[in-house]
Fold this sequence. Notes:
Layout: E1 9-14, H1 30-39, E2 45-50, H2 59-68, E3 72-76, H3 82-95, E4 101-104, H4 106-110, H5 112-116, E5 123-125, H6 129-137, E6 148-151, E7 159-161, H7 182-185, E8 198-202, E9 205-206, H8 217-221, E10 226-227, H9 230-243, E11 249-253, H10 262-275, E12 279-285, H11 287-292, H12 294-302, E13 305-313, H13 317-322, H14 329-341, E14 345-352, H15 359-362, H16 365-371, E15 376-381, H17 389-396, H18 422-436, H19 439-451, E16 462-463, H20 464-487, H21 495-510, H22 514-521, H23 524-527, E17 528-529, H24 531-537, E18 540-548, E19 553-563, E20 566-573, E21 582-587, H25 599-611, E22 615-618, H26 620-654
Parallel strand pairs: 1-2, 1-3, 3-4, 4-5, 8-11, 11-12, 12-13, 13-14, 14-15, 16-17, 18-21
Antiparallel strand pairs: 5-6, 6-7, 9-10, 18-19, 19-20, 21-22
Amino acid sequence: xxxxxxxxxxxxxxxxxxxxxxFALHPIPLGLECIAACIRxxxxxxxxxxxxxxxxPSSTFFRxxxxxxxxxxxxxxxxxxxxxxxxxxxxxxxYNPNLPVVAGGYHPSGGPELVLAxxxxxxxxxxxxxxxxxxxxxxxxxxxxxxxxxxxxxxxxTIKHNEPREFLPDLDLLPxxxxxxxxxxxxxxxxxxLIDRSYDQMEFGRGCYGLCTFCCEPYMSRGKQRYKSPERAxxxxxxxxxxxxRKPLRILIGDPHILGQPRKVEKLxxxxxxxxLDITFQVMSRTDSIVKHPDIVEKMIRAGMISWELxxxxxxxxxxxxxxxxxxxxxxxxxxGILRNLGGESxxxxxxxxxxxxKEFIKQFPAYARQIGLSAAAFxxxxxxxxxxxxxxxxxxxxxxxxxxxxxxxNHNVFxxxxxxxxxxxxxxxxxxxxxxxxxAILEQFRLDQVRxxxxxxxxxxxxxxxxxxxxxKLKFATEASYELAEDGRHNxxxxxxxxxxxxxxxxxxxxxxxxQYFQAHPMHEILDMRTFGKMLGEKHLQVVVEARDRxxxxxxxxxxxxxxxxxxxxLSKKPRSGADFLLRADLPRIFVDPNLGFLDKVKKYVxxxxxxxxxxxxxxxxxxxxxxxxKESAIYRFQNYHNYNGKKKQKNQF
Length: 655
């Protein structure tokens, strides 16, 4: 029989789930940290277990159960974490069948019956978790807890849904999230695409008044938006700043629409400008609010809110109307123009594979994204999540075929499309990613740094090495994403075959005439500091060729022309040019290296690529010059970082 409470030792669990974003950043279980902060004064102990961050074997969780001895377990779930969450719940029941397990988050809130269908889950918290968990730990009877769904123990497992819970009336009354609990398990969250900045997450408000059919917010926040006071938000920002040792920091403000109450945002910006902290922010907003309040947007960028995620969704008004976006294409274009003129980074998200989409239509998305001035773009496969209008529409027609919740990650197609197979939708989505994320997109982000208003403008040309490090990180991200797709193939091809297949279409997508046009308008040496590079190499022609030798086909050729000023021209094509001073040729089907190999095995594999001539190098003198430049710049980079760190350390001690 379940123990109904009160409870004194609470274990809060975040399962791991498949997500493309996980390669770039570590998702922070902020919701669990908020719950932990609310209940910690009512219990003897609370612990957060984040499966994504655990380095040990799967048996680690059972050991934690045995050592911590919880009397209540809470599990926060998204759709992709459904199966791994159920497995962790099963481990709890194996440890103690009478230990109550409560699930919460967007996925259980949208489909409580789907989660409670598994006997390992005893109850579901619908909506905000803090008040429900407070009632639970203090021993309130379950039938009296608003916002709770649970199985009746003596009625054949019938599910009872208690009345919905009112929203918390004042978010300022919530304590600061219990970020200190990360230290107990050694969790350090990172954004791997950032250079020299720590990373964290917070919320300024909750909810969004938008009613987009594919979004989870309409059922979670019911079209309402609430904010903390600017002073309370600033208190939390200072706490995060101190937690990270007052070092350069990036904070993701997770509100789905930060500009819902623009005057509160403006007040927060005033506080940030007065505090003068080295913190940049990533925010999310509807584009119509940007157009309505350009003066506040400028102040936001000056205060450090430099990165903006926008739901652009589609190049057509018809799609925006079908999904109840209630924004015009013209307004979206105006918003992106405002951000661009202020030096703000605009990340547009697109929905690929709606029922009316065709292969030809989807391939227009990357060109449209560049045309309207986006500095970054993400393309997600249209995914129906339980509780959304999109789920109700497709489910009522019997079109949803996928039962594997790990596939609900916006990387996979999960419903029967009228004109495309799942493989075709996923292929074209990945093609869109590769087509957009080319060298010009990366360089454009650095160019925006130099025209940005406010103190986060870069007043000098970026060192070439910093640019190359960023390119390397993004290529590593793309490679690991391709490897995940290779492991995840719907058929039984080998990992190497799937990786080669995805890499092949990426190279195909990268061959785009816009690249040369961009570099003609914005020469690299005007954005990057290449003086030393140009002087060391002089007039040189570098070339990289990727081919499929068994088919006698060139998949990709990149020609780089260098002058004394630096890189002058970059051309991408499928026709190698003659006369290169340095040439790297790679046979794509033979260069796959499994990332799961150990270090020595990887080294052996790389050496074998050269000895087997899968990778060929010509122009060793030029290669030596490139290596010498790299060694010299790396030494300067390390020297500068060392002195910058010591200088900041002295300032901190003086402060």
